[in-house]
Specification:
This protein is of the alpha/beta class. It is about 30% helix and about 20% strand. It has ten helices and 14 strands. A hairpin with a 6-residue loop joins β7 and β8. The structure holds zinc ion (ZN). Zinc ion binds next to loops.
Length: about 300
């Protein structure tokens, strides 16, 4: 398999646990809506009590306001956390943040954990996400390292399958391991809004983070699972880029199914990642999604952990 050697799952895990690791998914996002009261942060109203805050270079954050305090889905990066929380406090009807969801462990999502954890907020995440945040992680493909979070910043209310919160919030695990092995969704039933983290986006290819369990087959499973949670009228809020429709989600599901099939075929023919990139398995999607080379490489490498006979 070219000269990069084969990664078995064990080697990957060892690399992940032994190093530090990091994540730099995001190019600065297209601002979704008019600028809010905090410079640089866009605010999009989905309902009287539900807003998307767009933090350039970090992530989208979903904020539900109400009498029992604010519920946030993700908290942007540490560098932008203060500005984000200021923008949240300027939302109509905002009180203190009572609950923070981490859709997964990446720094673009967990940068407010420390300040909100210190303030006593509940931090809800899948147990796997908590575990990744208790260890240093290193990405072998670019050497980027991510330091574990201090105890107070780690999720303090973890779950394995699903849960509910007041006001019609249902959340659950996406066990397919699409982006990481700790991905969750949060569904706001009364507003019919579904937060999906980095599992889908119309703004550029994702990183298939196989170091922490994600794989391209999981992208297929997770997008299909999200289709079964959403309905035709659901607005879907990803971590990056504009709000998606149900039709967009369907398109993403079929796109990942196509790509998965092509990459699995290449793997079965004994091809390596460089050959997978050269085969242009994403060609009809590139005009929309951008340069695919890094995505294809990671997606192909992610198959080794799941499909290789010696994995
Ligand atoms: Zn991510």
């Amino acid at each position: 398999m070219e000269n990069q050697g084969r990664y078995t799952r064990r080697v990957l895990l060892k690399a992940a646990l032994g190093g530090a690791a990091g994540l730099a998914l995001a190019a600065p996002g297209r601002v979704l809506a008019a600028q809010g009261s905090v410079p640089g942060i866009g605010t999009l109203r989905l309902a009287d009590d539900l807003h998307v805050l767009t933090v350039p270079g970090a992530s989208n954050v979903l904020a539900r306001t109400g009498a029992s305090g604010v519920v946030l889905v993700d908290g942007a990066s540490a560098a932008t956390s203060a500005a984000l929380l200021k923008a949240v406090s300027a939302l109509p009807g905002a009180g203190s943040v009572q609950t923070l969801f981490n859709t997964h462990w990446h720094p673009e999502q967990t940068g407010s954990n420390e300040s909100l954890g210190k303030a006593g907020a509940a931090i809800i995440a899948h147990e796997n996400t908590r575990l990744w945040l208790t260890t240093d992680v290193k990405w072998p493909w670019n050497g980027q390292t991510f330091k574990r979070l201090p105890k107070v910043a780690q999720p303090n209310k973890t779950f394995y399958t699903s849960g509910t919160l007041d006001g019609g919030i249902r959340y659950g695990y996406l066990p397919d391991a699409g982006h990481t092995d700790g991905d969750l969704y949060v569904y706001f039933e009364p507003q019919n809004v579904l937060a999906v983290g980095d599992v889908v986006s119309l703004q550029g290819w994702p990183t298939v983070d196989y170091v922490t369990g994600g794989w391209i087959g999981g992208m297929v499973g997770a997008t299909q699972r999200l289709l079964s949670i959403a309905n035709e009228q659901t607005r879907i809020v990803p971590s990056r880029g504009p709000v998606l429709t149900y039709a967009d989600l369907k398109t993403q599901a079929s796109m990942y199914a196509t790509i998965y099939e092509r990459l699995a075929t290449l793997l079965n023919r004994g091809r390596g990642p460089g050959e997978a990139v050269a085969a242009k398995p994403t060609k009809e999607f590139d005009a929309q999604m951008g340069n695919p080379d890094e995505f294809v490489r990671r997606a192909f490498e992610s198959l080794w952990a799941y499909l290789s006979p010696d994995a």
